[in-house]
Amino acid sequence: MSQNQTVNEYQFKIASRILERLREAIKPDYLGLVSTDGHSITALSTPGFTDTDAVASLAASSYAATRQLARLVSDSDLTMMFNEGDELNVHIAQVTDKMLLVVCFQHLADMGRVRLLTNRALGALVDAMSRYEVSSGNRSNGAFAESADEAVEMLIAEDEEVSDGPD
User: Fold this and answer.
1) Number of structural domains, the chain?
2) Does residue 167 form part of some domain?
3) Which of 44, 67, 101, 165 has a CA that sits 20 to 30 A from residue 92's CA?
4) Over the stretch 52-98, which tens digit does the pLDDT of each residue have?
5) pTM score, two decimals?
6) Of residues 118, 95, 122, 103, the one with CA closest to residue 28
7) Is 89 helix (H, G, I), strand (E, B) or coil?
8) Residue 153 lies inside a defined structural domain of this protein
9) Within the chain, how many helices (H) and strands (E) appear?
10) What phi-psi label fits residue 74: left (phi over 0), alpha (psi between -120 and 50 degrees) or beta?
């Protein structure tokens, strides 16, 4: 695998499982991992959703521009963006230095729930990416499967808590 690679096989598999679970929970129009240079790593979208490659490129560009603006005004810790539109909301969060999580969801969705579950998925993604860094080489399939299951189960358990609400 090349040194310029954004994710390795294990990271991709874990991320795909986490994104699939998040998609089931919040039903976004678009959900994707995007490299900070604007390339789609993986994306899930509803049928008929616009060009997902363009979304990836524009989301990364928007994030980069906002991050530069934050640096200009001495706020170098920007890691998340949220844009609210008439029909669609866009949530962009930094997973790693080279990767963003992009979520596009309908304006009528429960925004608090979407943001809560997206942030939980973000935590699971950050953990998965750090455990299986590209430079760390291959891991055993058993350790990978256990880590993937832990990340997905954590997200599922927390989603069920949100769905059930207070007793």
Assistant:
1) 1
2) no
3) 165
4) 999 999 999 999 999 898 888 887 778 889 999 999 999 999 999 99
5) 0.80
6) 103
7) strand
8) yes
9) 4, 5
10) left
